[in-house]
Amino acid sequence: MFPNAFRAGPRQMALDLALPESHARDDFLEAPCNAAALALIEAWPDWPAPFVALVGPPGAGKSHLGAIWADQAGARRLAARDLAATPPADALATGALLLEDAGPKTPEVALFHLINSAKEEGAFVLMTARELPVSWGTGLKDLASRLRALPVVALAEPEDALLRAVLVKLFSDRQLNADAEIVEYLARRMERSLDAARRLVAELDRETLETGRRLTRPLAAQVLERIMQPSLI
Question: Which terminus of the chain has a lower count of CB atoms within 10 Å, N or C?
Fold first, then answer.
C-alpha cells in the first residue's frame, strides 16, 4: 500500500508497561450510547429494583460505570465466576455488590440465592454482563423467572463522536501526538468498539517505541492493517 514507508529498520524492545486506566467519574466520556447506563448509576439509590443488570459488548464501559457505582455505594466487587465460593452474606456484607462478568457459565444456584438474599436484606447489586440475562438459557426455572424480571440497562456500540473522543484521550494518555487526520482515518476504518480502540492505540504506541518512528497516517494504516480484519481497511 505504501511501499517506501514500511522498510524494516532497527527495532528496540519496548517495555510492556500497562498504563493504569482511570475509572474516575470525571474520566467517563458521556455519549448517547451510554446515556441510559450513566443515568442509572447516577440515580442510585433510587433504582427500579435492588438488583440491576448492566449489559454491553466488551469495552463498552461496563467496568468503568461499575467502578463509579462501587465507589459511591461502597460496594464489594466480585467476579461472577467466584460466586459459588462466596456466601451471600459475605457478598452483601457492605449492603452493595458489583457482580462482574456474569453470563451463561455463572453458577446458577449461587446466583439464585444471591438475588433472593439481596431482596430480603434490602441490598443493592449491579451485575455486569455481555449478554442479556434472559438469553443465558439457564436450566433452573426459578432463576430463569427472576432473570426475566431483572431491570436491564444496555450499552450500545459507540457513535462516531465518542469513538473519536476515546481515541484522542487514549493517545493523550500515552503522550502520542496524533493529529485530527490520523484520528479520523482510524475512526472510519477500525472495529467499532472502545475495546478495539484501546488495543489499537496500545499497538501504535508499541510500534513507535520499538521503531523510533513518528506516528503518521502511513504508520497508522500499517498497524491497523496488521491487527484488524482486511475488510475493514
Answer: N
